[in-house]
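Q: A reviewer asked whether we had any structural model of the full assembly, not just the individual parts. We don't, so I'm hoping you can provide one. Inputs are below.
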Amino acid sequence: MTGLATGLANATVNASTVLILAGLGEVISERAGVLNLGVEGIMLVGALTGFITTSITGSYWIGFSVGVAAGGAFSLIHGVLCISLNADQAVSGIMLTLLGTGLTTFLGNPWSGQSISGFPERTLPIVGDLLVEIPIFGRALFKSTMTDYMALILVPVVWLFLYRTNIGLELISVGEDPETADTMGIDVFKMRYLAVILGGMFAGAAGAHLSLAFNEIWSASMTAGQGWIAVALVIFARWRPERVLIGAYLFGLFNALQLFTQGIDFSLASNAVAAGLLNPIIGFVFNPTIMSTYPYIVTVLVLVITVARAENRQLAQPSALVQSYTRESE
Amino acid sequence: MKLETELTPRTEVPKWMVYGTPVFTILAALAVSALAFVALGENPIAAYQVMFVQTLTTEFGLTGTVAKGVPLILAGLAVYIPLKAQLWNIGAEGQLFLGAIFGTWIGLNVSLPAVLLLPLMFIGGGLAGAAWIAIPAFLRAKLGINEIITTLLFVFIATEVKNYLVRGPMQAEGANFPQTGELALAAQLPDIPFVGLPTGLLIAIALVVAIHVVLNRTSLGFEIAFIGANDDAAAHAGMSKFKIYMIVLLTGGAIAGFAGLSEIAGVQGRLRANFAPGYGFTAIPIALLGRNGALQVMLAALFFALLFVGGSSVQTVIGVPAAIVDIIQALVILFLLTAEFFKSYHIDLSLRRTPDPGSTGQLDGDV
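A: Here is a predicted structure for the entire assembly that you could use as a starting point for your response.
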């Protein structure tokens, strides 16, 4: 049983890094009022540019940096369209996903199937060997790649940035009430650009982690929908970075469970009470494919609960999300 | 010297802009996509020749385009109708799966002559599509929960439901592949006699006409457009936002269901696990290109069908990935969004000698 738990913990933690990085980026962007549905496309751009750079230079650190920068640059398209040209944020985001998927599939074709040597798994200095011995979670958490550690460190960093720095608080105020923020002298446009580019850099990092640490290969559409999961995750986390961490583990766990429950029979013994009635239901509920819908169903429920509670509590969703801002007196 | 830009909202959009935008957009998207061919060392003109000229001048290419066009027209309408009320059905792909699933299920399990069976399948498929959007629609109409996110989330749920069914309860007995059994002949859409085009085309055209009439000639169509233009004013005028939102979204879902089923009953003959045509997402640029009317939606859908058929020819003939179609699609949306801006604002450029400290060259329409 500990073997299973250890395996599950490993798979969960491994799968969560991508979601943590992409989710944190989306939190920053949405906190400033810009929904970015282009995460999936930006991640692919980060993954391919990082991969090609590493392949050419031989340095995964240079590759990773290029992936991050490319993510930021690519998200700038979304920024210009939504912030300066008042375009519909949802449509622009979907466009970015299409563009990223198309460009990387098309231009990455010659690199498809090639492999590189990316980030190695490392233990922490001095105490590392001890920490790995912690049962169940030791290996999962403390024998990881640098990008895994980085994702974990970025959770408190983003929290501090958003809630404990002036620029972070200004960013949040722009997402809540751009008019008031503007009259207080905050440059709404600059703030939103900053948030979109930062968010893009995080998504680029998530993609580069995929191709340089998680898989160490490039293949078309290798993100496999994780960018969309990151978008759902942000709603689940109700726009707070620390809850992104919890959500990423939960979503990662559901994914891992699919792999681990495949061989397990959950059904009741045939002589148990109501086994005939319950077994088909159990079989359905624990079916790996059906289980992979749970994160999405939970996300919808979270949305409903968030809105239903909004009357007597502060709404967690940034009030000006999806609203473009123009400095016109209307 | 400083370049100043001044933006003033347009009160009226020039006619040439309204009708020129789709054409300009497509040309610009093709011009920029040419760079992608150049990047892979291919001649873009030769590639476009294969893509468009070869497709449009062969019978195979033309019938292929029409066959692909049918689900795209339907999916385009599924996004277009809610868009009339300023709602985004981003999840047409999910409703399309449900239509395909339920329609196929009826086709496999009910034995009736084709004249009764096919309508029954389409009614079932349409209802399933509408049912799939019902929760997001209700959440939007009643609680104001953003329909963009919920319809999208339901796509991912629908994908897994389809995978589950095709690998489990609906899988053909004794089959090694994750797919249903083949639909009986009575459950498959025949070709139009003598013409050799899919019957689905007639369904699509009938719906385009019906929707055009409803939106332009009935009071319901007026209410939809009014709510889309100004929902507060519409509420004051005594219109029910709840009712209109439910109508446009459920209708959109039903038509997306038709789109999925028309592809199964008209082209594929059975539901496979890898059925993920992406029509529901292509429907977004289609509805945007054709947002001036149902007929324009149909033209835009046929254009994208041409792109898909041409894209796969380019892949086989020149050997570059058909993903070029995704790039063109994305660029069409990109240029449309840009054009939207120029349609709604009038831009004045002027050079000033001394920079005015008050304005920084950003949006500041002094009205």
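A: Points you may want to mention in the reply: DSSP finds 15 helices and two strands in chain A. Chain A has a mean pLDDT of 88.
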